[in-house]
Specification:
Elements: E1 4-5, E2 9-12, E3 16-22, H1 42-49, H2 51-54, H3 56-62, E4 68-75, E5 81-83, H4 87-94, E6 101-108, E7 113-118, H5 127-133, E8 140-144, E9 150-153, E10 159-161, E11 165-172, E12 178-181, H6 197-203, E13 224-229, E14 234-240, E15 244-247, E16 255-267, E17 273-277, E18 281-284, E19 290-305
Antiparallel strand pairs: 1-18, 2-3, 3-4, 4-11, 5-12, 6-9, 6-11, 7-8, 7-10, 13-14, 14-19, 15-19, 16-17, 16-18, 16-19
């Protein structure tokens, strides 16, 4: 097997744009751009290689489904306030996985904010009225953000990305989202955007009151720095200034590497070399348990896997 890069899928939106850099979502499948598998979609590659690509335990858990969706989100306007159901609720309602996710802020305008959880308790019986009259805005936990901030967004947490930031989003492969609130904005025809008020009611964790939802970590050069470790994925930061051997013997999982700054070359033990530039991602199959990452002056990467 080889290290693989995939073509990004650009999705313009009303509020900005998303770029799906690694996706197996039906209708938006990433396509390999190098090696013997060039031109194949991510699901086709998984069907061809199975555990050699995903890892044995991941095949047992997910079959031939790729368990992660990796995006860049460029928010030029405030996104709507949303919530995602957990696996149990999503399976019951939609026959799909739920959505736990994380955000890493790549850059942000001064004063940019996002929403994560509630800042004060609200009664479930008051929820629908607060959405209708807009007073729910007073109950949302708004957080100022800057480059390098990291957030874990578990299923059930109300959340929203604010204008003026670009983030990397790592999530379970799921398209189930409930829109809670959209700032009473109207479209060109004067209509309010559709909300999923009743569907969201059972999904929201009303006990999720927090004033500091940022992930606490210390950036260290030329080391693997843990950001998020949860049952659904693990994500680390690697800020490298010199060649770095990443040995993942025993991990039994593919690894996705997302380049946030700079550029580098990935070298496999078999002699394959592949360059990764800012804004790109690649996937190292589970069967390749060691790579050497050679930065060009300096590089900042996110590493994500399911193990």
């Amino acid at each position: 097997m080889q290290i693989l890069k995939f073509s990004p899928i650009y999705k313009p939106t009303l509020w900005g744009a998303e770029t799906w850099v690694v996706s197996a979502v039906k209708g938006s499948e990433s396509i390999a751009t190098n090696g013997d598998d060039k031109g194949l979609t991510l699901p086709e590659i998984i069907n061809r290689y199975g555990a050699d690509f995903l890892g044995k335990k991941n095949v047992e858990e997910f079959g031939t489904e790729f368990p992660l969706l990796i995006k860049f989100i460029d928010a030029r306007q405030d996104l709507s306030i949303q919530v995602h159901p957990d696996d149990a609720l999503s399976a019951k309602r939609h026959g799909k996985k739920g959505k736990n996710e994380m955000w890493y802020v790549i850059n942000a305008d001064r004063g940019s904010q996002l929403i994560a959880g509630f800042r004060q308790k609200i009664e479930i019986s008051d929820y629908a009225q607060k959405v209708a009259d807009g007073s729910i805005e007073d109950d949302l936990n708004k957080v100022n953000v800057c480059e390098g901030d990291c957030f874990y967004i578990p299923a059930g947490r109300v959340h929203g990305i604010g204008a003026g930031m670009v983030i990397a989003e790592i999530q379970q492969t799921s398209d189930v989202t409930y829109r809670i609130y959209d700032y009473l904005r109207r479209d060109r025809d004067g209509n309010l955007r559709e909300l999923h008020t009743q569907l969201a009611l059972e999904a929201i964790n009303f006990q999720d009151i927090t004033t500091d939802p940022k992930v606490s970590y210390t950036e260290i050069r030329d080391a693997v720095v843990g950001l998020v470790e949860c049952p659904f994925f693990t994500t680390n930061e690697l800020k490298l200034t010199k060649p770095f051997n990443r040995d993942t013997t025993g991990m039994d999982s593919f690894r996705v590497y997302i380049c946030l700054e700079g550029q580098c070359c990935f070298l496999s033990p078999e002699g394959q070399g592949i360059f990764l530039h800012q804004g790109e991602a690649l996937v190292v199959p589970a069967s390749i348990t060691s790579v050497t990452i050679v930065p060009d002056e300096g590089v900042k990467l996110l590493e994500s896997y399911v193990a």
